[in-house]
Design goal:
Length: about 270
């Protein structure tokens, strides 16, 4: 549930901030609300098509190499989550500036209102498609039930919409830099946990068996199927009997993501 909440909150928040910036930049332009609504609706429709496609692909492999399919989905989710954090580390401010510039151009008559719909639609489609992929990865990892994922998604959606509205109306007291830093850290840990579970699926399919001996066993203290264990599994990828391959995947994912983020920000790695 928490993994779903974090992902939906982060993705919807980013899309909501883009919509908010465009709305603020085009204040006073007649018809802007309708065209922005068209863009949001188009983006949501596109994300729904992506979701339908993902479900169809999964059904083709049901009962045939399901472990390999799950491992592939989790691996792709890890790559996308890494790319997401790295991209936002270097382009977040630039993206906001571009949205403001487009709004100013529409307000000044240099662009028509269709540009607003396209910009907003692409943003919502991008964030929505990423959400679909990430949530499929969470579902494949087996960490949450369908009901828990729906509840987490609903809470994440409501929270992100409320925060985006508060930012637009100037009521938010939490600095967005802090909010993005916290969610970036949570997504990094989530990606590392998914990488570890990807390795587990590969081992279930008969790969990497030379590294499958558990390094330790904390099941007597904190089993990963208990409530707290499930919580930690979602947040930080906890497992009570990790093996060398899982630990290596976990640490490598964190290391690569942090190194790429620092590189994209222009800071030397290790500084």
């Amino acid at each position: 549930m928490l993994g779903t909440l974090i992902i939906v909150f982060r993705e919807v928040m980013e899309a909501g901030l883009i919509v908010g910036i465009v709305l603020a930049a085009t204040r006073g332009v007649a018809g802007r609300a309708a065209w922005i609504s068209y863009g949001v609706a188009g983006g949501v429709a596109g994300a729904c098509l992506v979701a339908a496609g993902a479900d169809g692909i999964a059904s083709l492999f049901a009962g045939s190499g399901q472990e390999l399919l799950n491992a592939a989905v989790l691996g792709l989710a890890v790559v996308m989550l890494t790319w997401h954090n790295v991209w936002m580390a270097s382009h977040g401010r630039e993206m906001s500036q571009q949205m403001r510039e487009i709004g100013a151009q529409v307000r000044g008559g240099e662009r028509d209102l269709l540009a607003l719909a396209i910009v907003v639609g692409v943003a919502v489609l991008r964030e929505g498609s990423e959400t679909v992929l990430f949530l499929y990865g969470v579902a494949a990892s087996g960490g949450s039930s369908a009901a828990a994922m729906m509840a987490g998604g609903a809470l994440g959606l409501l929270g992100a919409v409320a925060l985006s509205a508060a930012v637009y109306f100037g009521l938010a007291s939490i600095p967005m830099k802090t909010m993005f830093a916290v969610t970036t850290a949570l997504i990094a840990l989530l990606a590392a946990g998914l990488a570890s579970q990807c390795v587990a699926f590969l081992q279930q399919a008969g790969f990497l068996m030379s590294f499958s001996t558990p390094l330790w066993d904390t099941s007597a203290i904190l089993p990963d199927n208990a409530m707290l264990g499930r919580l930690l599994r979602t947040l930080v990828g906890y497992t009570d009997q990790p093996n060398l391959a899982q630990l290596a995947a976990y640490l490598a994912t964190l290391g690569v993501m942090l190194a790429l983020m620092r590189w994209k920000r222009g800071a030397p790695v290790g500084a």
